[in-house]
Amino acid sequence: MSFTFVAFAYLAALILTALLIFFAIWHIIAFDELKNDHKNPIEQCKSLNPLIIPEYGTHIFINILFLLGGEWLTLFFNMPLIAYHINKFRTRSIMSGLGIYDPTSIMNAHTLNSAQREGWIKLGFYMITFFYYLYGMIAELIRD
Amino acid sequence: MDFSELTAMTTIRPPSGPSFPDKMINPIFPPSSNPTINGLPPPIFPPNSGTSSAQFNQPAFPPTSMNQYNPSPTPPLQSSNTYNTTVNPILPPQQQYQTTLMNQYNPSPTPLSQSSNTYNTAVNPILPPQQQYQPTLMNQYNPSPTPLSQPSNTAVNPILPSLQQYQPTSMNQYNPSPTPPLQSSNTAVNPTPPSQQYKPPLMNQYNPSPTPPIQSSNAAVSPTPPPQQYQPTSMNQYNPSPIPPIQSSNTYNTTTNPTPPPQQYQSTLMNQYNPSTAPSIQSSNAAVNPTPPPQQQYQPTLMNQYNPSPTPLSQSSNSAVSPTPPPQQYQPTLMNQYNPNPTLPVQPSNTYNTRVNPTPPPLPSTNHYNPPPNYQPTTTAQSPSPHIRPMYPSPSSAYRAQLQQPQNIPQMTNQNSQPPPTNPFPQYGANSNIPQNTTPLSTYPGQPPMPYTTSSNTSGNTNQKLNNINGSFANNTNNIIDLLKEKSVVSPFAEEPPISPLLTEETQQMNCSPEVMRCSLNVIPQTKDLLNKSRLPLGILIHPFKDLDSLNVVQGTKIVRCDGCKSYINPFVTFVNNTQWRCSICFRTNELPQEFLFDPTTKTYGDPSRRAEVRFGTVEYAATSDYMARPPPPAMYLFLLDVSHNAIQTGYLQSFCDILFENLSSLPGDARTQIGFITYDSRIHFYDLSDRQNGTFRIMVAPDLENIENKLDEFLPVPDGLMVTLNDCRAIVETFLNELPKVYQNNSETDSALGTALLIAGKLLHQTGGRVTVMQTRIPNINPGSLNSQIAKEPTVITPTSDFYKKLSLDYASQQIACDLFLLNSHYIDLTTLSCVSKYSGGEVKYYPGFHSVHTPDEVERFENDLRRYLQRKIGFEAVMRLRTPPALSIQAFYGNGFVRSVDLLVLPNINPDAAFGMQVAIEDSLAQYKSVTLQIALLYTSSKGERRIRVHSLSLPVSAAIKDIYAYADQEAMFALIAKMAADRSTTSSIQEAREAMCNVACDIIKATMSNTSSNRTVSLYVPYAIRSLPLYMLSMIKSTAFRAASGAKMDDRAYYIDLCKTLPTQYLMQIFYPDLYPIHTIEDTSQIVRDGDDELYIPARVQLSFQHIDSHGAYILDASEYIYVFIGKAISDHFVQNVFNLQTFSALPFDSYTLPAMDNSLSIKIHNFLTYLIQSRSHGVAVHIMREDSPNRYLFTRYLVDDRSESTMSYVEFLRYIREQIGK
């Protein structure tokens, strides 16, 4: 039993995924506020857009650790989300900032619903991966 | 850069003189009223202050900007130099100075004056009134016709070097003199004092001239009407004049309406197309009544005589007898906004008298509509057309004649011969005693008998389940049409917009007018599944601020709203008793305030159903202070004018200044109204129009600073004076408008710093909000906001290339500023990106491709008429619009120019009467417990008079579980408009290709869904319900339109413009954009509907489908595409036609393209003129008329609209139907 790089990767992933879960919850709350007319979409987008790059970056960083650690299966699980993130950022509407949410189109019911659904799905995904990383870390630690 | 943070930092208007805030210690442009605060002399350059300008150099600008500003030794503004010469110290004493000043105003041989002259003459053939008007202006303006300026020019030139002395101050001060000479020039400009010319009551305005000879000249067979007639009548409508233009009465009794809508633009447009073909009539008119009230132009009583209704409605009979409209009905209660003047007798009018005689001869009351024996509606016999009416009655400005329905109604329309309802005003929700199973109450001609009755919600014995009306259409199988057999699906005359089947024609007023709000489905499906099964789009189209003939304004009482859903009380609520009412939207039971029981008409308490709020679908409330976030600001109008070289070349500036000058009085507003101007090329030019300059204005030029976004708060040259109160500084504004075109006549700057100008405009207006009007002629190329003028390749997505304008627009929206764009470009301007600034701030975009004052007279005409309308029309500030629906419905998307602030709330910094919106609606839950669904639009706005108003439109529609009902009451035009909006959205989010495919799929899906519901499912037929028969045709036309077509040849700007129009245009105009109306006019005498009004007859030809099959080279055609009207002359046209209409011998003598029809004194020419004039008047916006020969190089402009035919890459209509048939068969 030794604290390998892989174990470190899982440990880091565990902590960072907890952060991602908070991001996801934040998204869900934010869109719920929008839907219930509590917040101005301009302000809400201003508060949401700065979180996009940290979230995507954190997720990609975790996977880089897995890549370095050679955890191919874990990486494989995460690939779809990475691809989704990259595609979403690539096809965002033109804006000078780094965000993806556009206050002029976000109130569109379709956009709003899909964003909210995305928040829930991501939340579920992060929860599952959280426990998976926990398992992976322990498994790595108790191997040998 | 966050603009909104900056705005909090500075004070635009410091209290006054000596107490400037700190930042004003060293302002860039020290205010002239405070000359000593920073040790500077006033920035006015007195005639003998050579030293002061040197002094002034130092603190004015930081050195960097100084360098930027004056990089070249040549003065940047030549024309302003000439003005500066007048203030030059070398100038001769005062007397001589005055003469120089005058000389400069003269039509000297300087290039611009010349060009403006040529401009006039070039425009003249098309705009006879303009011709008349212009010279008067010019003559007043040029006291001496002899060009004296040659010497003055030579005098000017040597003075130029001295100008360099104060150039580094980065201010070109136009300050001809602090002394009265400008006074004199003012009076020269206005021979009549402004107080007389511009602020008279309406009658004077119509004949503002204090000199009566104009009337006599009018009578004296002058081919051009006097300038007074040039004043558009619609001015009155938007005017704060005490006399209203409208004799208002009940709006929604359209068929029985005794008062037609006001005529807008009447004189303007009519003059252009019919400059007096019958001078004798004109003279007699002038003799009869020299100052007629224009609002009386249309004879309401006459319309009643056209009324084919078998039910003698009390209102119509009233108005037929007495010339005054019956305002007694509710007038005391509901203050009509337009406050009809009951003393004015309703005079019959000569509607189609395009000679623009404001006083038509009195009409004999015995004038009945006698269908002439030769009147045969040509195509109606084979094509079923419900309830025929003349084209375009929709705009309120249009003449709304009621045509008698042809007697040979096709059997398909199932004309209802039921006796009229006994209750002339069956109150929805009141206890009606009519048995349910007898004759339907709703007898809407042209529709199948309506199973819905206006049954009561409260009475227990009328528990009819409106939902269960299956089979009620079993006997109406004949309202299904086989598209493959019946090729002609476009009715020859326009159809009446559908009304809610809940209501009869008499109770239509309980719903708002379909032109204000209409739903794509007039029967709402009960469930989401049913809606999906029908494949029809559900949504509503709103034209919320439309000019209305009459409006019920409720003032002074408590505004009754539902406590639950906050909706306003409306005609569809139920009164439980006299203290409670039940909301029709959320079914909550609310308390009824006691004052609501008071009926102001009878001054009695009791029945709440007499109130206007529960009688009319459209009501306007005067809002209390609860509805204000801040005290209503004044109307603020800021104009941003492009004065770059390119802009000057187009010559728009002269037109703009002239028209604004004419319309200064018509700008909506009160005594507080403020106006301001900023011009820009590569720099920003400010104008101090305040009166501290002794009656002149001052030009201040700021170079285009880099990083202006960071310095905005120190950028404004003077704290006030840029926006001035129009009433106080009127003379200066007028002087300014006269001078402006000359100032920049030689401007050689080619760049455009639009972004900077917009930022500054936002800065100027951020405290009050207001309207920014931008005239732009080229793509902006100076940062911030510069755009790339190269299009890499034909893009597949219409998406902006920069988000600068979008962010600006959002900033504007949060500051209650709207931006309207007038684009007069001849090259690529990136309309997609630029229009963002209007899109989210509630503005509008007008587009005049290739505008040039000489080369494109039709565009000039359109621009000028649009601008007139733009300046005169009503305006609402700080508006929000909310749609309230039952909780089972939800709004999916908004379409239109505004910022979607919340799921049901649209923020509109400005609302104008020409803006329309669309909303896509989804059914979330089952509507099983609903008999009917009420939709309510509330528009809260600040009027230009500073009043807070709420305009509420309510619409109630029945719910049905039967898919047949859904189809039978579908509104194909509304569906088409809704699909166009969705397609426009799709083309900006995914791609145009996808949008096209979606349209194609819509047509297939709908027909497939309808086919599965019809029993006759044979493979060789394509049966669709009659109500959606034209949908495939419309889809095809949309696929082939400029906006969505596949051909790559379409200019990007055109495409983007038309895609924008999809979202912002009212339905009727949208229909014309995509499927224009084509009228053969060579047969106008044979196959027309005839509307007779007095001695005049209007011949409305039957429209034909857009196919070459209907185009005969022996014929002549009018194609009406809303903003453009093309007159197409076939090459084998008879010489007789050419001689009569064009005053030329043969077809070959015709010019290839021309823009005006000569006025000939023969019946054919008069008929065509009248018809054309009628078309032009029927819309509020301007129209460009283009007359072309069949062999004209521009004939593609006409032929591209023939969408029924196949082209290289697109299907013909028949092919499209077969394609659909194949798709369905799969």
TrEMBL record, chain A:
- Provide a GO biological process annotation: vesicle-mediated transport
Give the location in the cell: Membrane
Q: Could you tell me the membrane topology recorded for this protein?
A: Multi-pass membrane protein
UniProt record similarity statement? Belongs to the cornichon family.
Which residue ranges run through the membrane? 7-29, 60-86, 123-142
InterPro entries per record? Cornichon
Name of the featured protein: Cornichon-like protein
Gene Ontology cellular-component terms for this entry are: membrane
**Which key words tag this protein in UniProt?**
Membrane, Transmembrane, Transmembrane helix
| Taxonomic lineage from the root | Eukaryota, Metazoa, Spiralia, Gnathifera, Rotifera
One Pfam family for this entry, by name?
Cornichon
Is Transferase included in the keywords of this UniProt record? no
From TrEMBL, chain B:
The entry's protein name is: Uncharacterized protein
Where is this chain compositionally biased, Pro residues type?
Answer: 358-375
Q: SUPFAM superfamilies attached here?
A: beta-sandwich domain of Sec23/24, C-terminal, gelsolin-like domain of Sec23/24, Helical domain of Sec23/24, vWA-like, Zn-finger domain of Sec23/24
| Predominant location category | membrane
Family stated for the protein in its record: Belongs to the SEC23/SEC24 family. SEC24 subfamily.
GO terms, molecular function: SNARE binding; zinc ion binding
Task: Pinpoint the Sec23/Sec24 helical domain residues.
Answer: 971-1071
Polar residues bias: start-end ranges: 48-90, 102-221, 269-288, 302-322, 334-357, 394-409, 429-445
Is Isomerase among the key words of this record?
A: no
Spans annotated as Disordered:
1-90, 102-462
The alphabetical list of record keywords is: Cytoplasm, Cytoplasmic vesicle, Endoplasmic reticulum, ER-Golgi transport, Golgi apparatus, Membrane, Protein transport, Transport
Positions of the Sec23/Sec24 trunk domain: 632-871
